[in-house]
TrEMBL record:
The keyword Signal applies. This is PDZ domain-containing protein. InterPro entries: 2Fe-2S_ferredoxin-type, 2Fe2S_fd_BS, PDZ_sf. Residues 1-18 form the signal peptide. Keywords: Signal. It comes from Symbiodinium microadriaticum (Dinoflagellate). It comes from the Eukaryota. One of its GO terms (molecular function) is 2 iron, 2 sulfur cluster binding.
Length: 317
């Protein structure tokens, strides 16, 4: 069905409603039309067991309830049209949870860490690996197109409830069996021998020092990067369609606003923030995206590093 189909349906039903109202006023009701309308109403709104009982033809359906039913259908079609229009608009741009909602999905514990559960369909599509400098097993990689990657896209792009998985997260329990500090053989065995079609992992994330998940809008490309990595290098590995038109970063063509705090990052010059709470994804909106979704211009927003754009005379501030 095309995006305009519900609107056309609503207009059609409104025309039918007008015709029925005219017929009610000037014409005598037809017994055949009444019984036929009753049968049609039964076929639309009742269960198969109810449809098995034939309608009585002598029980005529008045024109007014028929018109009311069509009016209700018209209103329903209009509501569907509005909902479909809203869905088509939201499907173009990734939605976002608030900082409070992200925080509600984890439990903060000592040492700058956050703990949470995720349930992933088998096979998980992750690469586990022992930490090189301490006991324990972490998520070393997430296979593109695998079930963990699909889960992340549902959470980050479709606003599904739950927490996304990040490279560097430590596996501390599998289906309720704790394995914190365990070796790769122990953790892998728990996953392989788990029953059912899915596995629940309890993960711990270092939210002050671990890597950061970056989402680019409107391309909806996303990947994980280390803190202080040059944003331009991050973007170019993904191909998020950022334009670069100058050497000093002040032409504004590459400017993106971070969605949570609405501060501007000059992609060609600035880095992934060193101080970022990676429980929250780092979502970057293009200048056009900011204008279309927030109704503001990026040039009117504060630069993330606090530097003011050059004046017309070429001086800073």
């Amino acid at each position: 069905m095309s995006a305009h189909a519900p609107v056309v349906l609503a207009a059609f039903l409104a025309a039918v409603l007008a015709a029925c109202t005219w017929a009610q006023t000037f014409l005598a009701p037809s017994p055949w039309l009444s019984s036929k309308a009753q049968l049609n109403a039964q076929s639309r709104g009742r269960s198969s067991s109810t449809l098995a009982r034939p309608a009585r033809a002598e029980q005529a359906v008045p024109a007014a309830p028929l018109a009311l039913s069509i009016a209700s259908l018209g209103a329903l079609a209009a509501a569907v049209a509005r909902r479909q229009g809203a869905h088509s608009r939201s499907s173009v741009v990734a939605r976002r949870a608030t900082v409070a909602q992200w925080n509600s999905r984890v439990k903060r514990i000592e040492g700058g860490r956050a703990i949470f559960d995720v349930t992933i369909t088998k096979p998980l599509g992750i690469t586990p690996k022992e930490f090189p400098n301490r006991p324990g097993v972490g998520i070393a990689g997430i296979k593109e197109g695998g079930n963990t990657d699909l889960w992340n896209k549902e959470v980050l792009l479709n606003d599904a409830e739950g927490m996304f998985v990040l490279e560097g997260d430590e596996v501390v329990a599998v289906n309720g069996t704790f394995c914190e500090g365990g070796d790769l053989k122990t953790v892998s065995k728990l996953v392989k021998e788990s029953e059912g079609d899915s596995v629940t992992l309890k993960l711990v994330r270092n939210y002050l020092r671990g890597p950061v998940k970056i989402v680019w809008k409107p391309s909806l490309k996303m990947a994980t990067y280390k803190r202080k990595a040059l944003l331009r290098a991050c973007e170019e590995t993904l191909g998020a369609n950022v334009r670069y038109s100058c050497e000093d970063g002040w032409c504004s063509s590459c400017w993106h606003a971070e969605e949570t705090y609405m501060t501007v990052f000059r992609i060609c010059k600035m880095d992934v923030p060193e101080k970022w709470d990676n429980v929250v994804p780092f979502v970057l909106l293009s200048a056009l995206e900011v204008k279309n979704t927030k109704g503001v211009l990026v040039k009117n927003l504060m630069q993330a590093d606090g530097v003011k754009p050059p004046r017309q005379d070429g001086k800073i501030g």
